[in-house]
Amino acid sequence: MFETVLVPTDFSKYSDKVLECVGGLPGVKKVVLLNVIGPVDPLATIWNPGARLKVAKKKLLDQAKLLEAQGLEVEQRAEPMLEGEIFRNIQEVSEEEGVNLVVMGARGKGFLQNIFLGNVAKNVLRYGDRHLLLMRYKMLEGGIDLEEYCAMITTKVLCPTDFSEPSEEAIRFVKGMIGVREVVLLNVVFSGESQAHVDAKMKEAREKLNAIKEGFERDGIKASVLISMGDPAEEIIAVAEDENVSLVAMSSHGKGWMKQHIVGSVVYEVSKNGTKPVLVLRASKAS
């Protein structure tokens, strides 16, 4: 499912924590470690990355050993950023390596430091064509060891849906993931012309979610249904917390509120303000 995974790293403690979790992802066999080296002075017209490349390669070798100890094949790539933006390097390497999934940490000391505030995450979300796992654990902030959590990342998955075909594809994708024991199916009603209209929409949503729930239960996966009203991103974050899910899995496209994912709106806000890992499933690949 996720046979080849790309992990951009800046060698921070958050990058190290992400590496500890990669081995627990379903089906992963190979990891491509990528460090992008840009000029110290962004306005510099001439720079020689040679010395920094040497340091980066040594650090990549150290990180590779952590992954190889988990039985994974590892490729190390230190790439100078000659022009453009970092997300383009990530995309180019993803294409060259045939990557199924890109895994990025929530914080770092270098280009990942402002991943949920700057252009890197927005552009990877908007323009990337690979499944994207954004690791954001509340436990990281307190420095608590994540080892026990990493092996359970697919244990309890929150699946928000607007009932579009892309979001249904994402749900089918989750259904086929290894290690999924429980799912929480969520629909957010965010508008209505009247209370009667809202009630009708919620009733219709419950019927559709119950049908999806039955499909999971036939496959031996525990499932529950939730319907809420309000801002989609805020509701997803609240449910993820209340249900203590291990992962939020969301389609990158949709027909209703999820169509905003094309500009990174809802999924970006969930990733920025939530405390759970977010798996963004690209519509064209979630089948």
UniProtKB/TrEMBL annotation:
Residues 1-127, 155-282 form the UspA domain. Transmembrane segments: none annotated. Pfam families: Usp. InterPro entries: Rossmann-like_a/b/a_fold (IPR014729), Universal_stress_UspA (IPR006015), UspA (IPR006016). CDD domains: USP-like. Gene3D superfamilies: HUPs (3.40.50.620). It comes from the Archaea. Belongs to the universal stress protein A family. This is Universal stress protein.
